[in-house]
Amino acid sequence: MKLQTNQELKLAYDFVQYTNQNIFLTGKAGTGKTTFLKSLKEQSPKRMVVVAPTGVAAINAGGVTIHSFFQVSFGPQIPHDPGIPRSPGVQANGGVAAGIKRFSKEKINIIRSLDLLVIDEISMVRADLLDAIDEVLRRFKNRSKPFGGLQLLMIGDLQQLSPIVKDEEWEILKSYYDTAYFFSSRALKQSGFVPIELKEIFRQSDQEFINLLNKVRENCIDTATIHALNERYIPNFQPDDDEGYITLTTHNYQAQQINEARLNKLSAKAHTFYAEVDGDFPEYAYPAARELILKTGAQVMFVKNDSSYEKRYYNGKIGKVVRIGEDFITVQCPGEEESIAVSREEWQNTKYSLNETNKEIDEIIVGRFEQFPLKTAWAITIHKSQGLTFDKAIIDARQSFAHGQVYVALSRCKTLGGMVLRTPIETYSVKSDDTVLGFIHDAGAHQPNQHQLDEAQKAYQVMLLNELFDFKYLYNQAGYIIKLWNDHKEQVMGTLFDNLVLMLSPVQNEMIGVAGKFSIQMERLMQNSTDVEANPQMQERVKKAAGYFSEKLHSLAEQPVNKSSFETDNKVIRKSIANAVDKLAKEIAIKKACLETLKNGFNLKPYLEARAKASVEESGHGRPHRETADLSNLEYPDFYKQLRTWRNDKADALNVTLSRVISQKTMVDIANILPATRQELKAIKGMGGTKLQQFGKEILTMTIAFRKTKGMEIPFDADKEIHRAALDTKEISLEMFKNGMSVSDIAKERSLAASTIETHLSFFVGTGELDIFDVVKHEKIAAIEKCIRENSGSMTSEIKAALGDDYSYGEIRMVLNYLNQVKRAGER
Fold it and tell me: Is 430 left (phi over 0), alpha (psi -120 to 50) or beta?
């Protein structure tokens, strides 16, 4: 099967390749949907990931499950208004509630760089799950567009497997959706899609059989159809073991009973082969049996295509085990002369990873499953036969319970003559869904043609160019950062604000205004053209526009952001501004890379490659850094840097935030003033009390040392100033008193009231560190003590009034503290 020789396949490929339209690729069983996907992965230049609703489907499609890639839970997904960000709601255990999951940086970059999301087996995907995908994509790509502006390729046949929705789940979802099918998705209804039906059947070549299958599929069964099918009803049909028939049942227990009974009837020795599982390969995704039990004579089915160049078998081929060895199993298939020596095969579980070197999306093998690609195959369920092809099959569909089940069973057969019915087909056994039939009919009526492809291709190219030459986001993001700055201007410093303010007007006039005129020119030039790449006039305008806007982007946006700096010790503010600048820098980087590719004209493939790589590369701008602010407005910027380094180290050592050491504003004041005494340092806002006692000595040591290097004046007794900087104010008074200074002298030198000094000293009298008789005269102590005893329980002011003006409050407090200290000592 080649894309070039099949009209629908080529149309589907071209819609994927050259447009941004969502596509629903459907078709009857055997029309090559799986083969198309494989070819697309090999040929398309678009960056894509492939997801599927189940583990086995994901392994078969060479992708990952929807739930694992988008980190969605398995329960009902309540749709959310995309215009209102969902609150994360951090739970007590650190997890994130309300449907929001934390994504790794690598996963985010992969999503941001995607052009195409392929969803295989879309018929099994519920509407709410598709809307959950939409919400994730909006978060990390474009919030205003369905699926973040990403193109979807949805592959599947609604007449085959249906979405599973439990009654209790539908009770929740029915308020939001008309049906559980993917086409009821809110996001899909908003974005729309192009339906393409593959019509050429590769599995069957018998036109009579194909017509019968079509009538079953489309619920157009009449008496003639039932009669033709039931001609294949053969009562009590018992084929010879060598004929290679497989029975298709509706329920798993039926298939299991048949396989176990037939295997037990064989007299040969049973052999058990254990799968080798390495790395991450979840059990629900096992593509073959973990424990494979076989006997010589067992009928088996291959569950994988032959990976060797010989291509001796395919998934679904039936044969019989004729020999069992330690490292091989020999299988003889009906109608073939040569037997097949089967070795173990390997299945790989992959995940998507971003290549840091070339920024491409790599498929990384995270787990391997190795086993013989065989299973006992006297019987298999219809559900598990999905995608398989059988030469000979016995179909038992009398207990058909699901939509499309009879059609799936019948369509597994290559020919009508290779099919035998265990029980007659009844009309009631062929279950169909009127909603599905209506949807399929409507989709079939809107199959696109070449003209629509041409228009979609042109619209896609014009959209890409309009997006590139739209510079409003640069302007708006710069304005947002300016607002952030104004909201917190007392806590930030640097050149970022001024540079962005100066940037706004030139960006508005020389970029946004000019781009508006270019957009009008582009629409005029494209009126009678179907392709930008093939329009010489358009290509010439694109080249000139790329040159003009590249220079303007560099001079008016990139350079101002490059030269900008900011600093704040508020972690929340720093993160908000840094994130906003990151987004601005990222936008500049993406536009710069895309404009570079247009200097030689517009070509879709290199353009998409450049855009994808730029979206994941680190821009290098806007990172929150402690040494980014411009310091030219400071009196002593060199000392500020020294002080900042000291503060950073101190915060790390104490395991506290920067502002818990000293604030940025305080550092600026210190760097401007360079305090040389304890009093000067204490006078700076933010350096009083505990801060002075904690860090005063270290800061004064630095300021005085810096003053020396600059030849500036320093205190006569600098060492004493540094020493006192680390002392509590009371301790300084005590030290000065012990050095022989009187209370009045201390008060004069420290510019404090004498009563304050007395209060300082009374504290140390109470602790026993200072002898009261060194501070207060003996006769005064006796008089005060006597008055206190005579006026027991009185307030200090009453005792002062009784003693008169010759006694100070400080002296009374000293005696009170002294008596309390003596009392405590006696009690001990």
Answer: beta
Q: What is the dihedral of CA 745, 747, 749, 751, to 10 degrees?
A: -160
Q: Mean pLDDT by 10-residue block, N- to C-terminus, for the chain (828 residues)?
A: 67 89 83 80 83 73 81 81 52 37 80 89 91 92 90 86 80 87 92 86 70 78 84 88 85 90 93 93 87 94 84 85 92 90 90 66 83 92 78 79 70 87 75 70 78 88 90 92 89 88 94 91 81 86 92 93 85 86 91 91 86 70 46 78 85 82 84 82 80 79 82 72 64 81 84 84 85 88 87 83 87 86 72
**Alpha carbon distance 340, 29 (integer Å):** 28
| Distance (Å, whole) CA 244 – CA 192 | 46
Backbone angles phi, psi at 397, to 5 degrees: -115, 25
Tell me the C-alpha distance between 113 and 617, whole Å. 10
CA-to-CA dists, residue 812 to 379, 646, 735, angstroms: 106, 45, 22
Closest CA to 362 of 48, 23, 9, 820: 48
What is the C-alpha separation between 65 and 50, in angstroms, rounded? Answer: 8
Structure tokens at 532: 């930008």
Q: Are 776 and 815 in contact (CB under 8 A)?
A: yes
Rounded CA separation 571/65 (Å): 38
Q: Are 504 and 479 in contact (CB under 8 A)?
A: yes
E strand map for 208-275: 246-249, 271-274
Rounded-to-integer distance, Cα 117 and Cα 127, Å: 16
